[in-house]
Structures are given as structure tokens and as C-alpha cells.
Specification:
- The complex is a heterodimer of chains A (233) and B (120).
- Chain A is mostly helical and 233 residues long.
- Chain A is 73% helix and 0% strand.
- The longest helix of chain A has 36 residues.
- Chain B is an all-alpha fold.
- Classes of the chains: A mainly alpha (233), B mainly alpha (120).
- Chains A and B meet through α1, α3 and α8 of A and α1, α2 and α3 of B.
């Protein structure tokens, strides 16, 4: 970015222009670069967990075929659809802010927040169902007779593979870390709703709406990989 | 490439808002690919199932990045940052899996030999 030439400084500073930026344009570009660097660190963060998944799966493929019967693919698919919908409304909120559509912006932010809430409710249902039936992580894996009954007959006939607890450690760690990201996103959307209600955002200033949406899309993107890797196998 | 934010003058450049049909089409494509990945998992393709699932997920992630995250219309440098991170994450997973599958057969053979030898 080229700095504005001396003498062309705007008479009145824009209300949301930080003192260390020369213009709204350079402020937006800096925010974008910073956000993309943060998203790169998120990719590497989850990359370590995907590595654990890949190593475990490469060495124990039988385990994944057994364990995925305890995961309901319909709930996973429902959450995939919910997150895609929330990504659409997040992208829509950016569009509304850029076009100065304040009502549309508030509606899109609210829909994103609500869909994130639906995702967490489904997640809660899944987690509590598992934990009530003794499907825990690591040494806490003690499945009840009731849930073992739900397995296909062919699987019940053979002894259960070893290390199922480790599979659920990876499952809870990856989906749990993703869930924490969803909770953080919900907090961010609450904050955006408050600011949008105050009328902070418009075509001249939409940095927070755009950057939070970028974060929200990467949360969606990670789920796009988690869904087939855990639920569909 | 667009020059939306090239102007240093505040408020001079109108932001590049994505057209509504592009957003809706992206979401529709993502939904269709979700159905496809579920259907594909029902067909037994052996080891190819994982490859197919990852290919579909990769395509979906690319759609999200290019359109929802408007990377397609952004300064090229944002793409460089992101693609570099993805590249190194894939490198990490790939090389570690190559490594572990290299010595796993030896490990299994040793375990079986120990079992055959019986408890000490």
C-alpha cells in the first residue's frame, strides 16, 4: 500500500479508523493479511490432529469400521447441512454490510448465530448419548450392553478390536476442538449483532463482519473434512 | 484482478460485494456434494472410498475458500499464505503416514513371533 501523500490527509478521520492507519483501505488490507495468517495457523493446528487420525487409521483400519457404528451419520449429515447454511448466511452478512443493508445484515448475523446454536445442540445430543452409554475417551471407554446390542450382528459375532478408547480420544479431541471453535464463533456473532444494532457497519467499514465470516468459513471447512472421516469412514 | 481496495482514499472505492446468485449457487453446490459424499460412502470401493471422500471434501473446501471466503477476488498474497499452510499440513500428514506404514509390517511380524513363542 502506498501511504497517502502529505497534504491530502482527510479533514475528519473516519470514526473506526485506528490512529496507526493512514486510510480505511490500508486498515482493511492489514486486517485481511492478519486474518489469513491466523487461518493458516488454524490449518496447522488442526493439521497435527489430522496427522494423529491418519497414523491411527493407517495402522488400525478395522477399528474405524467397527467404531463408526456408534456414530449416527444422519446427525453428522444434519450438522453438515446446518453449517453450510450458516456459512451462506455469514457470507450474506458480509454482502449486506458492504451494500449498507442494515436490516439484512442484522438478519443474516442472527441466522448465523442461530444455526451455530443448532449445531451445538445436535453436538450435545451426540456427546451425551455416547457418554451415557460409556463411550468415553481413552481409559473411559466402557460401552454398556445396551449400546453393544445396537451393533450389526456380524460385528457382535467377532471380538471387539483393541484400542477403541484411543479412537474415541481422537474423535472427542477433533470434534471437541471444532466445537470450541463454534462456541467462540457464537460469541463473535453476538458481538457483531450488538455492533450492527448500533449501526456501526456499512460500505465504509465492515472489517469485523468480513473477518469473523472468514473465521466462520474455516470452521465450516474443518467440519467438511471431519464429517466423512468420522461418520462415513 | 479487482482493484477494489487499491485506492488509499477513504470511502472512494465501493467494496466488491459478491452477487447473491454466486453465494446461493455455492451453497447449493456444497449441499449437492454433501449428498454425493454420503451416497459414495455407501458403495464399497475398498481403499478408494477414503480417497474419494477426501477428494469431495477437498472440492467443497475449495468452493468455500474461493467464493464464501472470496479468495478468488482477493489479493493473490492471501491465497499464497493459505495454500502454503495447507501444503505443509498435507506434507506433515503424508510423510508421517509413509513413515508409520514403512515399519508397521515389521512390528506386526515381531508381535506374531512373540505370540508364537508363547508366554514366558
Amino acid at each position: 500500500m502506498s501511504a497517502p501523500s502529505p497534504g491530502s490527509a482527510p479533514a475528519a478521520r473516519a470514526p473506526f479508523l485506528a490512529p496507526h492507519f493512514g486510510s480505511m483501505g490500508s486498515q482493511l488490507d492489514t486486517a485481511k493479511l492478519g486474518t489469513w495468517l491466523f487461518l493458516a495457523s488454524e490449518v496447522l493446528f488442526f493439521g497435527g490432529l489430522f496427522t494423529a487420525y491418519a497414523v491411527f487409521r493407517a495402522n488400525h483400519p478395522d477399528l474405524f469400521h467397527y467404531a463408526h457404528h456408534f456414530l449416527d451419520w444422519r446427525l453428522g449429515a444434519l450438522n453438515t447441512v446446518v453449517l453450510i447454511g450458516s456459512s451462506l448466511s455469514a457470507a450474506w452478512s458480509v454482502r449486506c454490510a458492504q451494500l449498507g443493508q442494515r436490516r439484512g445484515l442484522r438478519a443474516a448475523l442472527l441466522v448465523t448465530l442461530l444455526l451455530a446454536g443448532v449445531f451445538m445442540v445436535v453436538k450435545y445430543t451426540e456427546y451425551s448419548h455416547k457418554l451415557h452409554h460409556g463411550i468415553g475417551w481413552g481409559a473411559a471407554y466402557h460401552p454398556t450392553a445396551e449400546i453393544l446390542e445396537s451393533l450389526p450382528a456380524a460385528l457382535r459375532a467377532v471380538p471387539a478390536p483393541e484400542h477403541l478408547g484411543t479412537f474415541y480420544s481422537i474423535y472427542f479431541l477433533m470434534t471437541g476442538l471444532h466445537g470450541i471453535h463454534v462456541l467462540v464463533g457464537m460469541g463473535l456473532y453476538l458481538w457483531l449483532l450488538r455492533r450492527a444494532g448500533r449501526g456501526d457497519f456499512g460500505p465504509g467499514y465492515y472489517v469485523p463482519v468480513d473477518m469473523v465470516a472468514l473465521y466462520w468459513h474455516i470452521v465450516d471447512m474443518i467440519w467438511i473434512f471431519l464429517f466423512p472421516l468420522f461418520y462415513l469412514v | 484482478m479487482n482493484e477494489t481496495h487499491a485506492s488509499p482514499r477513504e470511502g472512494a472505492a465501493a467494496p466488491h460485494a459478491l452477487p447473491a446468485p454466486v453465494l446461493v449457487a455455492t451453497a447449493a453446490a456444497l449441499m449437492a456434494l454433501t449428498v454425493l459424499t454420503v451416497v459414495a460412502s455407501r458403495i464399497d470401493l475398498g481403499a478408494f472410498n477414503v480417497v474419494l471422500a477426501l477428494a469431495i471434501a477437498g472440492l467443497k473446501a475449495s468452493l468455500v475458500a474461493l467464493f464464501f471466503m472470496h479468495l478468488r477476488y482477493e489479493n493473490r498474497f492471501s491465497s499464497v499464505v493459505f495454500v502454503t499452510a495447507v501444503f505443509f499440513a498435507v506434507l506433515l500428514v503424508g510423510l508421517v503416514v509413509f513413515d508409520t506404514t514403512q515399519y508397521q509390517p515389521d512390528l506386526r511380524a515381531a508381535q506374531q513371533a512373540a505370540q508364537r513363542a508363547g508366554p514366558r
